[in-house]
Amino acid sequence: MAALDDVELGALEILDGERVALLGGSGSGKTVIIKRLLGLQGGPMRRRGSPLSDRCAYVPQSDGVFLDASVLENVTQPSVHVPSVPESEARDYLDLVGLSSRITFPVAGLSIADRRRVALARALSRRRPLLVIDGILDPTIGALLPDLLETIPHVRSLLFTSCVIDSAVGRADRVALVDGCHVLAQDTLIALRASMDPDVRAALTWVAP
What we know:
By secondary structure, this protein is an alpha/beta fold. Helix content is 33%, strand content 19%. It is built from eight helices and ten strands. The protein has a six-stranded mixed sheet with strand order 6-7-8-3-9-10, sandwiched between helices. It has a two-stranded antiparallel ribbon with strand order 1-2.
């Protein structure tokens, strides 16, 4: 089953098995687009009668964690609106993101980068086919992410944001170029760089390495 089949938000399309980069300069509207997709801004988007958010696991740009809880509690009890996760399963996800030795630590005492790892473990525990990551992960976990996802069969597709053309964007199957809270174009990075569209070329100048 496709993660989102051919769901579109403007020109945004995410197909089963794809890694799609949402690329745009700071303030271009990447987070706004993600919040629209997840129904966090405006009415919930739906596919075949069900909210798209039901098929997405989300790592928000902010911490996305409970600061007054432990690392383990953040995964076993994701929120009051989400079923609890068995402790053994939560431990597995925390091990995947490199936090197995700190499961009893209070999240408030972790670095921002490690809080992001907790948020990633929380998202993986949701068992949703589309993983949405808004904002950067620390370089170590970011580099391991492609291999990590290969070990988690329920994650079928990935949508992530970037404000620069980096190695992760270069490895993406397709890139959705964002400006003014809209997707200007979506294609391979090579095709976007070869585009003669003046809006595309202008937007690329803000994200060039």
